[in-house]
Amino acid sequence: MRIDILTVLPEMIEGMVNCSIIRRAQDKGIAEIRLHNLRDYATNRWRRVDDYPFGGEAGMVIQIEPVDRAITALKEERTYDEVIYTSPDGEMFNQPMANSMSLLNNLIILCGHYKGVDYRIREHLITKEISVGDYVLTGGEIAAAVITDAVVRLIPGVIGDEQSALSDSFQDGLLAPPVYTRPADYKGWKAPGVLLSGHRRNIDEWRLQQACDRTTRLRPDLPGVTAEEALPFQLKDAKEGFPEDR
Question: Where are the domains of the chain?
Fold first, then answer.
């Protein structure tokens, strides 16, 4: 997979794409992340890519010309599955979306900045708009980093133990169950005995029950929880507060 990120502040993302799992994915040749400074596509001597909005509103707006020039140049080299714009009013990013995007080959991500981008960019150049939450960031660079990380780690071969990614929170509409490691007994705080039993079926059943219980209690809005499962916990929580982890 190749991901081209268009931004006015590439230094905000450089650290993320050059370390940890994303770095290893690139070293293996599984993923290629390219950062493009929109200022390199400006046509003025000051490399300026923003201007005042028509109508007199406060703030600055990214101009259409440098964005169009950048996207056009990239599309001359390859075909892109999606041209994404990170926006507060885009479709909410979630695990199913990350799963689907991990199957694609080439992506462009345009990072919003300042007051946003000339709306004609969104009308004519963008194929998908994505939001990472109901809040406003200084720029879309952080959102682009979140999307890139969530998608790339799902590509086969990126994570050594691929089953680890499949058991992450949200993969099956549930939160992940609690995890424990050595020592089994620390200051009298003991790891659940079932995890030390070696009985695979009991362990799997315990983990599934924990995932269901935690999701019902903490995130009853997730698709892995049915109304019938959520109701008893909601009634109990209303009376007693959240129960302790089982």
Answer: 2-152, 175-240
Q: How many CA atoms lie within 13 A of 40 on its CB side?
A: 10
Burial class (CB in 10 A: 0-12, 13-18, 19+), 121: buried
Considering the domain 175-240, what is its CATH architecture? Orthogonal Bundle (1.10)
Give the model confidence (pLDDT) of 41-72 as tens digits: 999 999 999 999 999 888 899 999 999 999 99
Q: How far apart are CA 89 and CA 148, in angstroms?
A: 19
* Inter-CA distances, 143 with 90, 132, 135, 140, 148, Å: 12, 6, 11, 5, 9
Neighbours of 245 (CB within 10 A): 11
CATH of domain 2-152: 3.40.1280.10
pTM of the predicted structure, to 2 decimals: 0.80
